[in-house]
Amino acid sequence: MVYFSSVLAALVFALFCFNTSVLSQRNSPVYTVIAPSKLRPDIVYHVSITVHDAPSPVDFNVQIFGTNEDRIPVSVLKDVHIDPKQTQVVDFELFDWKPGDYTLEVIGQGGLTVRNSTKLIFEHKSYSVYIQTDRPVYKPGQLVQFRVIVTNPYLLPRSSQLPIDLLVKDGHGNSIREWKNVFPTNGVASAEFLLADRPVLGEWAVHVNVEGQKFHKNFTVAEFIMPTYEVHIELPFFILLTINQMHSYGKAVKGEVTLTVAPRTRYNKLNVRPYESFQTKARIDGTVVIYLNLLKDLSLRTDFFKREIEFFALVEEEETGHKYNTTNTMWIYDKDIKIDLIRTSETFKPGLKYTAFLKVSHQDETPVSNSRGQLELLYGYTIREEDWKKNYILFLEMEL
């Protein structure tokens, strides 16, 4: 017997077997048996038998037998009469079969004599179950609503006359709520339950049992604590750092603040040297002022200017131990005045005037007063001509 778990492989091997048989022994009978390698409950099991070359019809005895998980022997048997060059499909209805060890056996007599068998794999999945919850995360005291959609292998709703069992377990695996013998409507069953005020936190699960086939889906039960205070960092233009810590209703918070200061890194393809960082701790009662010397504390060099500095404050409340953080940034410069060229056009024409503006301001964009000094402007252009030599080498000499 030739047995396949794939129809395509079966056909290829059958043709190969048939051709080699014809070449070697012209009168040797040839047959093929095609059947799934997996056995599933509540699904019709098909066995296809073909007699390719035989002197007379063949009587086949097709049997599936074995022992289930309860050590109970089970078997189904069918007889089929097949003429030469004919194919017949034998159907087995394996309803309510349990996991176990099973074998497919084919016995043929008449035009050919054959006795072959093969082991089958029992796969205890004949339904698809989809479990939906109305939200992924729940808080204590909230209503949990969920529904279960049960379909057959053809994605059609399961019969409403067959019940299913539902079970909810908490984060410790304890059974919290159970619904027995629930009859789905058009394949859909719904249920709900109310969480306690102080439930077990963590990953809960909805378990579904469909005729011994089990499915589950997790959801989270977590307690969300609203922030009771806020943290702010106020950065003036000079490095005088002020940290405010207040409750959401305005009361000052006592605790400890950890301040971390470091140049902000913007990643690119160029490798930059590691930057220094600075960290300090201080007691806080609503507000604390921290004095910093960035050049010294961060070991900055002149090539750091212009540079963005990041301030990260972590505050731990003294009474509750709750921690909250915030981040703020500021820029530092090596000069307090900047000059920007404002162009009126990106192009110019020879012989025509070109108008541009120079904007002189502080780094914070505030204007510079006239008493600060004079602005010296240098402008012009240079031109140089050289002869192109025959050796295609041009000599350039410049004074830098």
UniProtKB/TrEMBL annotation:
Q: Boundaries of each Macroglobulin domain copy?
A: 129-221
Q: Where are the transmembrane segments?
A: none
Family matches, as PANTHER family: CD109 ANTIGEN, MACROGLOBULIN / COMPLEMENT
Give GO terms: molecular function aspect only: endopeptidase inhibitor activity
> Which is a Pfam family this sequence falls into?
MG2
**What is the species of this protein?**
Caerostris extrusa
Q: Give the record's keywords alphabetically.
A: Glycoprotein, Signal, Thioester bond
What name appears for this protein in its UniProt entry? TEP1-F
Q: Which gene encodes it?
A: CD109
Quaternary structure per UniProt?
Heterodimer of a TEP1-N chain and an TEP1-C chain non-covalently linked. Forms a complex composed of TEP1-N and TEP1-C heterodimer, LRIM1 and APL1C; the interaction stabilizes TEP1-N and TEP1-C heterodimer, prevents its binding to tissues while circulating in the hemolymph and protects the thioester bond from hydrolysis. Mature TEP1 and to a lesser extent full-length TEP1 interact with SPCLIP1; the interaction is induced by microbial infection.
Q: What does this protein do?
A: Binds covalently through a thioester bond to the pathogen surface resulting in pathogen clearance.
* Signal peptide (from-to): 1-24
